[in-house]
Amino acid sequence: MRHLIGLFSGLLFGAGLALSGMMDPARVRGFLDVAGHWDPTLAFVMGGAVLVMALAWAIQRRMHRPALCEEFALPGTRLIDARLIGGAALFGVGWGLGGLCPGPAIASLVFHPLDASVFVVAMLAGMALFRLADRPHT
Amino acid sequence: MIEWFLHTFPHAQPLRGLAGGILIGLAGALMLLGAGRIAGISGLTARVTGLAKGGAPWPLAALFIAGLPLGALIVAALTGPIPAQFPTSLIVLTLAGVITGIGTRLGSGCTSGHGVCGLSRLSPRSIVATLTFIAAGMVTVALVNALTAGG
């Protein structure tokens, strides 16, 4: 039952994506199109989300454990390396090409089944490829 | 100020953007304070599909991913059709998808994990990642526009 929090979080996230216009690849590419007709909407989305999340982090620092499970499981690494920068750069290229990041693509599956599933299946294939290539050498 | 903004950016929807952003922030807050985890969509997707080892409990990740389209459907039911203009080329969509899949795993996150959750935590990794993918996205759009205008 405690996993239901995932459903509520996903619902809110999907609703936010839909309300904010971030499920429109053309609008997302408009934000990245600084040399053309720049559309700053995405900056407002990020601003609103970061503001609320900053409050959440302030609360989190005063909590000993999450409300519904034993402990926090948060990324602890501070390493800034070629993997991080190369991965983010690759993701940026894909984001610029399609105007889609993983969340809006998955939320779009019910509205634009063909286009969205082409992207999502290709993304899963990319993740699978990475997993194969990233196997530790033995 | 407001008039200047509306005149300069006639297509922008700052209020809807802000409202949607606040919902996204609440989603991240719920995941963090309730389940003790980052609402990072690429990571949760990899977890659900078995493409990542370890991570969030499977039911938690699966319910989150299932919630994304459901939440969007609720907004569509309340406010009408959600505008979306996808790239027309399936080759572009495929290429974009594959690159996004590799990049988000290699870089340990996407717009949600790094751009919202990590940035608001002032994580140096997420700040670098977010600046990098926005810059790479801007360069990509500029290059694609230049190439398609010339061709």
TrEMBL record, chain A:
Keywords: Membrane, Transmembrane, Transmembrane helix. This is YeeE/YedE family protein. InterPro entries: DUF6691. The chain crosses the membrane at residues 40-59, 80-98, 110-130. It comes from the Bacteria. It comes from Novosphingobium organovorum.
Automatic annotation (TrEMBL), chain B:
InterPro entries: Sulf_transp_TsuA/YedE. Keywords: Cell inner membrane, Cell membrane, Membrane, Transmembrane, Transmembrane helix, Transport. It holds the Pfam family Sulf_transp. Signal peptide: none annotated. It is a multi-pass membrane protein. It is found in: Cell inner membrane. The chain crosses the membrane at residues 20-39, 60-80, 86-106, 127-148. It comes from the Bacteria. Belongs to the TsuA/YedE (TC 9.B.102) family. This is YeeE/YedE family protein. It comes from Novosphingobium organovorum.
